[in-house]
């Protein structure tokens, strides 16, 4: 009798563990199941905090949560040992506070309401489940689980954001079911995938704005994207066919310390560009057509990345800034595309006001740059020719640099084509080194040379610039090293290095090497210029610059 009772208890316990939803009333209009996996986490909190119990209550009964955990491990987003330690020493009060405010019925109602609106826009081919969970992993995404599309949403998100998250992830499921490719393989796929999901809130709610669509981005970041759309396009263009976690971190991922957007960019700019592409394409195509199209085909039809559309404008636009600094090079500051319009103090501490030309070049000047014929042996004035010289940090005469330059100059007709080829090579082959960046900012390190950068394939904006300038100088194009300050979307400021190339009969052309752009945005303010970092004679801790945008 005792054995029979014991077996009954065991069966009951496993039955309880395997319970997938605590919503007893199945809604007939619901497309799939609502899985309240946070109940398993609550059971874990009520038990001894061991890894075995975490598996028993949180992972094993809920395949979707387990799949998310496995994905994080596979992508090295979590370290298994550290995560286990985090689980064992979990902050119980934090999670109990979250669970105290949970209303099971409210989650079910939110999902039912969202699904009703989504299905009017486009019906899914297969059922879609939603899994509300709680764990040290805070995330929301769609995963295929046991042959079904499952939306996972951490209940750590703000309650008011969850309806938007459901709609966003539901759109991912729809795209997954309709698109010809099973998995995104390059940046172009991710952009379209996130674009459909980001624009979907506006499809299901005519009163929604771009801020609801891009709910995952702070409002100032969205505003920055609207203002700098062409700059984003010009940057992303170089990486469209690339794949891998580094590319995701650059344009798709979020999270301080994990995402690695281009210098001066906010996180998730790929979401914004995807949103804009879908917004325009929906004027000509149905949502079903868009979801069924190949991403590259959709991007090509959008003409968003047509190089002919980049960096031209019918009129010159300016921004104005006030610069205060302990150390500055007035001659460099007063050179194209900047001009000093007022000097308040011309000695340390300096205070000046400048005018800076916008990102978009006048069409006439841009066309002149693009059609300037390449001539490796052109004669330049002495003050320009000195920027062809090899230096300790920019070894432009080395055999290794010559070998690369020779491969890039094959069949080159225009100077601009070589600049773009060198930009693409450097920005795609060098990875950012945040440790070195901290040392340079603290004045503990100067910079690595072009050859060192070529060898180690990593560096900061300075190393990107060194390698690029070594290539242009070897190719007979004068180039100088620039140190400046960038105004970030969140209001912070950072030091940055970029290059300027001299094009005969046209003048200096700013080049944002790290991001692969042939122009520096107007929120990049030049403070020093020289043959290399040392020639600028500007240790960053000594500059103490602060820049303020002003109205004129």
Description of the molecule:
By secondary structure, this protein is an alpha/beta fold. The protein folds into three domains: 20-178, no CATH class; 180-310, no CATH class; 313-550, C8orf32 fold, CATH 3.10.620.30. It contains 26 helices and 16 strands. The strands form five sheets. A four-stranded mixed sheet has the order 1-2-4-3, sandwiched between helices. A four-stranded antiparallel sheet has the order 7-8-6-16, with no helix packed on it. A four-stranded antiparallel sheet has the order 14-13-12-15. Strand 3 (140-145) and strand 4 form a beta hairpin. The longest helix is centred in the N-terminal third of the chain and has 18 residues, at 104-121.
Helix/strand/pairing category: alpha/beta
**Class of the largest domain in CATH?**
Alpha Beta
Number of helices: 26
What portion of the residues fall into strands of 2 or more residues? 15-25%
Mean pLDDT: 86
Q: What composes the largest sheet?
A: 4 strands, mixed
| Gap between N and C termini | 91 Å
What is the number of E strands? 16
Q: Please give the oligomerization state of what you see.
A: single chain
Main β-sheet, spatial strand arrangement: 1-2-4-3
Query: Which fold does the CATH topology of the largest domain refer to?
Result: C8orf32 fold
Radius of gyration: 28 Å
Secondary-structure blueprint of this entry?
Layout: H1 2-17, E1 34-36, H2 38-45, H3 51-59, H4 63-74, H5 80-88, H6 92-100, H7 104-121, E2 128-133, E3 140-145, E4 148-154, H8 162-178, H9 187-204, H10 210-213, H11 219-227, H12 229-237, H13 245-251, H14 269-281, H15 287-292, H16 295-302, E5 312-313, E6 318-325, H17 330-333, E7 338-345, E8 350-357, E9 361-362, H18 363-370, H19 382-385, H20 399-409, H21 415-429, E10 431-432, H22 434-441, H23 450-456, E11 458-459, H24 461-474, E12 479-487, E13 493-503, E14 507-511, E15 524-530, H25 533-536, H26 540-543, E16 546-550
Parallel strand pairs: 1-2, 2-4, 5-9, 10-11
Antiparallel strand pairs: 3-4, 6-8, 6-16, 7-8, 12-13, 12-15, 13-14
Helix pairs in contact: 2-3, 7-8, 8-9, 9-14, 9-16, 20-24, 21-24, 23-24
